[in-house]
Structure formats: C-alpha cells, structure tokens
Amino acid sequence: MPICSKSKVQFEVPQADLDFLERISPTFANQKFLLPPPTLAPLERIKRRTAHRNERFIYTNKSAFTGEKLVSIYRPDTECKIVKQKEWFSDQWDPLSFGRDFDFNQLFFAQFHELQKVVPRANVVSVDNENSDYTTGTGYCKNCYLINSSEYCEDCFYGKLFQKCTNVVDSAYCYDSELLYECFNAQNCYDCKYVYNSQNTSNSWFCDNLTGCQHCFLCTNLSSKNHYFENQQLSKENYEEKVGEIISDPEKFKNAQNQFVELRKNRIYKYANIINSENSKGDFMANCKNCEDCFDINDSEDCHYVQVGVNVKDLLDCSNMYVKPELSYETLGTIGTYNIHFCIYVFHSNNMWYSEQCFSCQDCFACIGLRHKQYCLFNKQYSKEEYENKVAEIIAYMQKTKEWGEFFPVEISPFGYNESLASEYNPLTRDEAIANGFVWSDYQPPKPQVAKIAPADKLPFDIKQIPDEILDWAIECAETKKLFQLQKAELAFYHKMNLAIPHLHPDVRYDNRMKLRNARTLYHRVCDKKGCNTEFDSTFSPKQPEKIYCEKCYLAEVY
Length: 559
What we know:
Helix content is 21%, strand content 34%.
C-alpha cells in the first residue's frame, strides 16, 4: 500500500478508484494523460480540499471597484480583490483582461496563485438568493441569515445544510421541514424544538430518533406515537399540562435540557444514520446506492469519499456538491456540473480542469472568474485546436513537476485553517495547523457599536418580557463573553414559537450542534446485542460508551 506523503501512514487505493481515474483521464491533442493514484491518505485529501472553503464566518470588507462596504467570506486583510456579487456578474469588468501565457519556468500552482490575487471574486458564494446577503454556499434562498450549504429555503437563520426548509433556526441537516428550533438531522418535520435524528415528526420537544410521531416530549426511539412523555403514553390533557409546566418555568426547562442529554447517552443507536440505501457505507445518508465512505449525502449513486452531496453521481474525493453534479474528482463546491475536476466553485459547467469561480463555462483549464466561455486557458481565449495543444503541453509539464493529479495546495487558500470547513471536520490547534503547513487566521473583527450590552443570563426567560429595544443592544454570551446581536426577523421567530432568547453566541451554538455527530471516520465493529455477531462499519468508535446495534437488532428493539 502507498504511504501518505503528509501523514506518513499507509492507505489503500481500491481498484475501483484506479479504474475511475483511468476513466476520467483526459485526452488533449490526441494524447491521453493518465491521472496518477493519490499521494495523500483520504483524511489528508479532505483536509487539503476543505481548507479552501469558508462557509460560516462573515466579515466586513470593501469592494475593490467602488470602495463601498460589503459583507464577505474573505477577511479585510486578504490578498484577494473582493467585489459585490452584483458587480461581479456585471459587464463592468472582463475576466479575459487578466489572461496570461503559461511560464514553463515556474510551477503551475504558483502561477495559478498569482492569478487568484488579481482576478476579482464575489464577496460570497451563492446563486439566485433574495435578501440573504449574510449567507454563503447557498442557492435559491429568500430572507435567510447566517446559513450555509443550503438551497431552496426561506426565513431560516443560523444553520448548516438546509434543503427546502422554512422558518428553521439554529439547526443543522434539516430537509423539507418547517418551524424548527435547535433541531439536528430532521426530515419532513414540523414545529419541533430540540429534536434530533427524526423523520415525519411534529409538535415535539427534546426527542431523539422519532419516526412518524406527534406531541412527544423527552422521548427516544419511538415510531408512530402520539402524546408520549418520557416514552410513556399520556392522555392529551395530561400531556399538555406536563409540557406546559416545563416550558414555562426556566428551572424546569433547564432540567429537561439536562435530562435530554442523559437520555441520549443511554439510548440504543443504529450503527449508522443510513436510510433506504443500498450497498452504501458512511453516515447521514438517504436514498443512496453504491456510495462508500460518504457522509451527508442523499439521492446519490456510485460515489466514494464524498462529504455533502445532493443528488450526485460518479464522484470521487469531492465535497459540497449540489443539484445533480456528475463525474468529478477532487472538486469542491459545484451546482449542476458534469466532468469537473480539481475545481473550486464551478457552476452549471462541464469539462473544466483546475478552475475556480466559473459560471456556465465548458472546456476551460486553469481559469478564474469566467462566465459563458469556452476554450480558455489562464483566462486567455484560444481556438479549440490551440487550446488542446497548449493544455497538452502544460499537463506534460505538470507531470514532470508532479503537480498533475494534485488538488490546489493549502498554502494558496485565502482562508485560515481555523475559519475553513477543514477545521470543522478535523479540528486542530493553532500550533498543529501551522506544523502541518496550514495558514492560520488571527484576525479579530471589531466589536459592534451598540447602545447597551446585556449579559445573556440576565435576560428574562419569558419572551414577552423582552423589549423591542433589544435589537439595538449587544448580548454578552454566557459562556465566552463574546458579543452578538439579534435580527428583527429572528426576534419575531422567538415570539412566534414562544422561545427564550438564546444565551450563547451563534458560534458557540453552531459548534455545539456539530458535536452532536461523530467524526467522519469509520470503524469496523460487531453488534453490541448479546448473541449477535453481525459486523458493520460505524462512526461510533469502540471506545465510545453508546450501545451500537446492527440494523436488524436495532429495529427489533425500537419498533
């Protein structure tokens, strides 16, 4: 087995992956250029790729065109030229004006990085949003704030990976749902608070793993139940009385939160969050076929080492792929693409190599910021024949420099490791990140200028006692003392749902949600049910205390 050039650990390259690399190896000027096997272990490939994506930290920056203030995923101290999305998509600049010839005396990635510094880039990465400036990695959303990796959502705030959701706040991994608060991994749910890993469930609080349930409180592992309290059937009247007492009393509410934590520790878990999938291995998967070592994907087929995929097919080593991308290798962040390789943020395009932030393009190599272009190389226009000949020369050169078949190095990412998706998947300390060759950001945004600072733990529990003037205040996080502010629509949501004001900074709430899931690492295990020897792969480490069952034993126990 090969040895990872970064971590020095051995790793396997399955024959199916080698076959895939041969299948996608391109032909230019009648020469086929085979893609070499990966030189990094799968985990290191994920770190390298996702270090190029910031999907949650928003800064104040300035337009390189007008000097006007804008919100951006790029820090004010970045080398990049940042402009508003409207400016980026306008005709006031020409991406081809930055075109250049390839220098065969310099490394490919060094030349690409020089192009990155001068070609303007949009302040956020989004497609056809409305009134959702403070989001990134989003498409077709309306009235949303600080959500990422989401499409077709409306009136959603503070979250990750929402699909077709409305009024979902402080949640993650939610699909086709409405009126959710502090929910995690919910599908087709309605009016739920603190509900995890559940489907087709409504009007419930503090529950984990419900299917087809209504009006449940402090319950786990139930199916098709109604008016259940602590996994016990109650009358409608008794249930409503008990729940009403708890949610109206701050001390009882806090006790319920603590009890929920203990319930989750002691419940039985299925080996993986895999629903209606065939020949697939990973976690958080639904309606998939032949997907291995994949996480957070749905309606997908024939994939390996994919993290976050919506309706994807034939992908290897890709992250954050949406809306029917097909046939890609080592690519990050696409919508509606075909045959895209070693790319970052390429949309509605095909046959693209080593390119970044291109829209509706085809047959381009090493380009940035293009729209509706074909046969371009380093942002320079060529005829088809010229393009093929020059690309063939460059790939032959990249083979000699050993850059061919490698993704963009972490050194040219505009983001610090601590603000990138890589940090969320694989947290490192500052010293660890720098020792591993990653960039680290020490930037601290200025404190907000507000009329008043209110300690979160001094705010009333009853939302009716919160004055509208709180929108002009800063709230001091009860844990970190960092300041945060409420949005007008957010406050309206708390009133509508009769919820208390959050006491923790949005970053803390986000990190707490991410801790609800295991790391994206698979362990080979045996079912914990006595007498069952079924083997499976699970993200639950053998060192963790939870009881993990195979699907058959789990269903027998739960249903």
